[in-house]
C-alpha cells in the first residue's frame, strides 16, 4: 500500500511541475502575458471606424445610406460593379459625412448589378 501512495504522490507532483512549466508558455502564446509597453498599437478595427453604410440593390439601381456617429468627418464613395461586360462600372463622387449626419449615395447599371461597396477615407484633425 505504501508503494502505491508514494507512486501516486510522485505522479501528482510531476503533473503539477509539468503544468507549471507549460502554462506560462501557453499564456504568452495567447497574448495575455509579455506585453512590453502599454502604448503598443491597437488591433485593426479597434475604436471608431467611420460612417456605417447600408446598401440596397433593386434591379439595376443601387442606393447607400451612410450615417456617421463619430466626432470626425468621414469621406465615403460608392462603387458599383455591373454584371454585363459592356456595362460601365461606376464610382460616385466622394462625399463628406460630417459628425451626426447621414448622406444618400445612388448609382445604376444599364442591366444587372454584380456587386456594390463603399470605401471610407477618414479626415485627420491636423490635415488642413
Describe this structure in words.
By secondary structure, this protein is α+β, with helices and mostly antiparallel strands. It is 22% helix and 35% strand. The protein is built from one helix and seven strands, in the order H-E-E-E-E-E-E-E. The protein has one helix at residues 2-29; strands at 52-58, 61-67, 74-82, 90-91, 95-97, 102-108, 113-122. Strands 3, 4, 5 and 7 form a four-stranded antiparallel sheet that branches. A hairpin with a 7-residue loop joins strand 3 (74-82) and strand 4 (90-91). The longest helix is centred in the N-terminal third of the chain and has 28 residues, at 2-29. The relative contact order is 0.17. Mean pLDDT is 75; it is low at 26-46.
Beta-strand share of residues: 35-45%
- Secondary-structure-based class equals alpha+beta
- What is the end-to-end distance? 84 Å
What's the total helix number?
1
Order of helices and strands: HEEEEEEE
Average pLDDT taken over every residue: 75
Shape: elongated
- Strand segment count: 7
Short description:
With 128 residues, this protein is α+β, with helices and mostly antiparallel strands. The chain contains 1 helix and 7 strands, in the order αβββββββ.
List the helices and strands and how they pair.
Blueprint (H helix, E strand, L loop, with lengths): L1 H28 L22 E7 L2 E7 L6 E9 L7 E2 L3 E3 L4 E7 L4 E10 L6
